[in-house]
User: What shape does this take?
Amino acid sequence: MLNGFCIILSKYRLYQGIALYRSLVYNHNNFRAFILCVDDEAYQMCISMNLENAILLRTDELTDERLAVIKQNRRLNEYCWTLKPFFLEYVLSKYEYIDHAVYLDADICFFSDPAPMFENKHNYCALFSEHDFLEKDSEVEKNCGKYNSGLVIFKNCKTSLDILKWWEEKCIDWCFDSIDEGKFGDQKYLDLIPRLFEGIYSISAPGVNIAPWNEAKYHFSNKAEKVYANMNQLICYHYCGLRLLNNHQYALLIGSQIPNSVIHTPYTLVVQQVISDIERISPSFDGFFVESHFHNRAKIYEIGR
Assistant: This one.
């Protein structure tokens, strides 16, 4: 089985995106990484880094003319969200040897082999990752959706292509970083897909896509050089709301905003190494950012602590 992991990168997601790529190389033997670069800085840097398992793509390879208009009228994150179903459809259609197209947000990192994600007792076409919010955040689920669109799996089949075509139209029509009449970005549309298409299930493997919105349910520990979340091996953690400020500091923007030494220390050290590697190639490259509306509530920490 050959899986295609699909990552969208701008210059502001490059550091974490390369860390994600390296975590796949370390933990998964047989895969291709499809990296869609939305700006020249990200594309040129990926070329310079000689990512052997990666196929680099530019957005103009997605030939839907509507995307050029969208790019002019939406913010960068909204544009990237809109690209998601187009990117996945492109990979499944052009690279027919790929068994699954897996979309991953760039701020995900794998701690062990992702193979269990594809194990499901059902004959599926697509697998979605449930947010599994804390009980106190049930209202958040109503607004943001049952499923997290930062990790979705589509099997290479006709139904998946039909789903992606449907999702494309929805995202062209409306995909913004706001909540409006049952919509939120590209994500809330996922709630409708199981009602409209057959073969849609939740990822059943434990330890997948744990994140600040549900990490309070877990105790993280190291056992025999592996990371565990409660009694199960951690497959991947989603560092949603982590922003790199410079090569020595990072900020946490959501959740408890309290770093966990098992989760945050090794990850930020890996990212710091990525930053150093990029600095050697291009000393002037700057991929650091924090959105202005988070400035007053960001909690800042030293990398590696």
Remarks:
- Helices lie at 14-27, 40-48, 66-73, 76-94, 138-144, 158-173, 193-196, 264-281.
